[in-house]
Write a structure and sequence with these properties.
homodimer; 436 residues; alpha/beta; four-stranded mixed sheet; four-stranded antiparallel sheet; 16% strand
């Protein structure tokens, strides 16, 4: 088998055989197939696509490129959730303890901030002492005793993905439904999940700005799950406006604490309960999503999720005192408000602009080596549908540098659309894909 | 400017600006743009194409990547011909001296055998002593005194093409009309030609097996010439059957000697005269191709072309005694005939099979490091349209190894199609493209 012949076949639109895909991924991971051949193959895949069978095989080959976490024997269905990333998307921090409180085990391997979107690991690490680098043994222990664990991707899991992603980033081959699918799914199933709920974000604050592309990705994820013999369902949710009222690291943790104590933004809590219900259904703990919703709502309201969250923070080395008394946590030294230029109703908040503004003040990274600030962020004083008068606060920017905060404020001043008459915000959940 | 952004634009079907193409070719040639980025770009070009303007700019950027031979002051129009390669295609060896005998100067930079096709340099080097590595100074001298010269591509001319071709060869990006166009045209115009006749071969023995692809390449070559301000015309000629009766190195030289002495195969001589006439027309020495044909025929018949050829061989160090007495030249130690299984008429000879058979006996190379044999080859005893009886010779295979000759004979036995009734061979010249 020669790489060049397989490249030519993919270039000409052929479907590659399973053993051909294995050969390519193994060769690339070992270094026998050089980057320039794999780059050419990746571009051919971007432009010619892959069938569901090819995508599933690619995912499997990537999983087999490294270690697979062995979670056999952990009691309870292992179900994870993955979001394609948004602005203010802190769902995982509440969803994982809630799902665990309902009886699922959630082995969650998360990422850091990327582009204009935040990262679950960065949010967790804003809790003083919190460690996301658990050993496989401790990870398993956390699942057994707490019910969920949150870790970063280790070097030994899916090395093919790390190599492929680095190459895709510099060769214009990021935007490909099958490649994105295989990248997400390989990581999720290598970490030991049995079933997966995908939250595919669409809108200005998402990577998939376009609804049709989001739908295509959702379908690809579900079909690939089926090809791998795993239950996968996908929700397509709106990311045209930020989720909740907090964008930042510890600011989002505080909002999560509210969500677990009956004080979260209604729309956000609602989305979390919906996602938990689908996870319960995927894991077989609820016969229908509706049944799952009832259970999830109950465990959120009775404080079970909050207890599981505290147990997790304790297990992963975080300071729970800061969670019980959030005012002791990271706080910004510079705060500045953006005010409304007119009377009216908030018709929209550009999530992409809010994301970029948040990176400017240190919520995310412009370059890989940048440090994120736990205290920085944006608190939305007015969100979509709410009335506002001229001169009233639209948001408050928290940061550590007056210059950066000023710059973020200038950017945010253009992010609010104010309409003269009442506006009702559209639904977050746009569509679901539950079957291949 | 970042390479990745330009790759993305080409991937999405955009037209690259002239300075963007310059940036990419310069960066690749200098090594600043790594192979993996350029490979991804090449695949995007293969699948998304290039406009005529982009192709012309790519060609120009490639020419500017290295030295350009300075032939200013050489008297007479500098016109070259390039063939995309065929089986038995020895036209250059007669055409160059014929065109020179008519008053053109032909600065010909040729290649070696590639795949199933022979190479002009290999044919010339079957003449004992013949050197194809003339210095630029001697090359110019040959043009001034003899009228034509035949050399190989030097390292310093169009280095971008050498690097690009090596990468294309291993990344499945050879088959692209704009990339093929730029590769051919950059070499031809860097060697100093002012105008160019292209012989685009089509059929089983050509690289462009398909007539539509051959036409697309012909049009692209002519349009790119126009974009560079050079006169380029293209002939699309049939390569379903071998050209002439000889396939090999010195066997083809012998046939060329015949062509220049009134004894060549009529169809082959006819094609050479047609090509010479177009070159004369392109160079402005004939008002019309028809006028050019008259002049060319005259200079072929009166022995002028033959004299120029002998002068060239003398100049380039070859043994002219062998040309005057070809039986003193390379001769094979093993000869074996392939005979007809039935009575009838030759309806076709698979040029691809003949090409592969010729590589087996040493006419061409299976691997880059193989040596070619000057004596090896195939002489067609019966060609298309001729009658044959069962048991009569179809061809004789010349070689140096009985095993290889046997293998070639087995392959050739299946290459002749014998029809029960008379067959007339189709024309060699299928179409012409003379204007962008």
């Amino acid at each position: 088998m020669r790489a060049v012949d397989l490249i030519v076949r993919k270039r000409d639109g052929a479907e590659l055989a399973p053993e051909e895909i294995d050969f390519l991924v193994r060769g690339f991971t070992s270094g026998e197939i050089p980057d320039y051949q794999f780059a050419s193959l990746l571009m051919a895949i971007v432009l010619k696509g892959m069938t569901p069978d090819e995508t599933a095989r690619l995912t499997r080959a990537m999983i087999e490129s490294g270690e697979v976490l062995d979670l056999a024997g952990v009691p309870g269905p292992l179900v994870d959730k993955h979001s394609t990333g948004g602005v203010g998307d802190k769902v995982s921090l509440v969803l994982a303890p809630l799902a665990a409180a309902c009886g699922l085990r959630v082995p969650m391997m998360s990422g850091r901030s990327l582009g204009h979107t935040g990262g679950t690991l960065d949010k967790l690490e804003s809790i003083p002492g919190y460690r996301t680098d658990l050993s496989p043994k401790r990870f398993r222990q956390a699942l057994e005793t707490v019910g969920f664990a949150m870790i970063g991707q280790s070097e030994s899991v899916v090395p093919a993905d790390r190599r492929m992603y680095a190459l895709r980033d510099v060769t214009g081959t990021v935007e490909s439904i099958p490649l994105i699918t295989a990248s997400i799914m390989s990581k999720k199933f290598a970490e030991g999940a049995q079933a997966l709920l995908m939250d595919v974000k669409t809108g200005s604050g998402a990577f998939m700005k376009d609804r049709d592309r989001a739908r295509a990705l959702a379908r690809s994820l579900v079909a690939t799950g089926a090809g791998l013999g795993r239950r996968v369902a996908a929700m397509i949710t709106d990311m045209d406006r930020p989720l909740g009222r907090a964008v930042g690291n510890f600011l989002e943790v505080r909002e999560c604490i509210d969500c677990m104590n009956g004080a979260g933004p209604a729309e956000e809590v609602d989305l979390i309960v919906q996602q938990a219900s689908r996870m319960l259904w995927l894991g077989g703990l609820a016969a229908t999503p509706t049944e799952g919703e009832k259970l999830a709502l109950q465990r959120l309201r009775d404080g079970s999720a909050w207890k599981v969250f505290l147990a997790n923070v304790e297990f992963q080395g975080g300071n729970t005192d800061v969670l019980l008394h959030p005012d002791k946590g990271p706080a910004a030294s510079v705060k500045k408000a953006v005010t409304s230029p007119s009377d009216g109703f908030v018709a929209g908040i550009d999530a992409y602009a809010a994301g970029i503004a948040s990176v400017l003040i240190g919520v995310g990274r412009s370059r890989k080596e940048d440090r994120v600030l736990p205290s920085a962020g944006i608190l939305l004083s007015r969100t979509v549908g709410e009335a506002v008068r001229r001169g009233e606060e639209l948001c408050v920017v928290h940061g550590e540098s007056a210059g950066a905060v000023d710059e973020a404020c200038r950017l945010l001043a253009g992010a609010w659309r104010i309409a003269p008459g009442p506006v009702s915000p559209g639904p977050r959940l746009l569509e679901e894909v539950t079957r291949a």
